[in-house]
Amino acid sequence: MAKDQTVSAKNHNLFIILSALFITNALMAEFIGVKIISLERILRIKPLNIDFIGDSLLSLNMSVGVIIWPIVFIISDVINEYYGRKGVQKISILASLLIAYSFIIVVFSTQSPPADFWLENNNVDPDGNVFNINFAYNTIFRQGLGIIVGSITAFLVGQLVDAYTFHYLRILTNHKWLWLRATGSTVVSQLVDSFLILFIAFYLLGNWTFIQVLSVGLIQYIYKIFIAILLTPVIYWMHFIIDKYLGKEKAHEMIEVATNA
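The structure assignment produced for this chain is given below.
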């Protein structure tokens, strides 16, 4: 009896840890995602400026939130492996509700009147130029609202697609080739997520052109697939750690149940 309780506690603790990692990274990606970064500047190379559509050019520009997003779909695949589609759906809905809650808090914070001393203490930038910190604060977070609205939609759709693709590939491969179902589910789901979030956040609710959505979305999608392949050993490492933590017998039992759920 005591052994069963210990195994049950480990199962419960594992889900809490995976959920915390999943939600933390998803929520952080929402708030930092408003900034578009240049990978070329990070890598200290010249802009690629590849001819794209019409007169537009394609460069390595993407949302900074995308950098940590691979962690989200790695955790998602691990949850799917041990807790099945229902586990992924449960944590995806919870994450979306928490993101929606953060949306409400951000609206309240941007609508709240600023204190005079706060404006005065921050009325110039480091170079001595006049600076309106309240305007900057509201501008950044209100752009973030577009990210949140777009991401909740893209997130739920992408996670559902990922969960069903992962589950289908697991049955198709008869539990073999973890790398295939992890990478395969990412290839399919992120094709939806990468473009849908930008379309809603920056085209429908922002000031981007459709060409900019396509160019940034393409770079983000390529990045996600590249990182997903690069981080494949991490999935096997997490699989090994979890099997050792739960015990191989219990871990394999959970995988079997998750497959047939």
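Interim note for the steering committee: The CA atoms of residues 89 and 160 lie 7 Å apart. The chain is about 75% helix and 5% strand.
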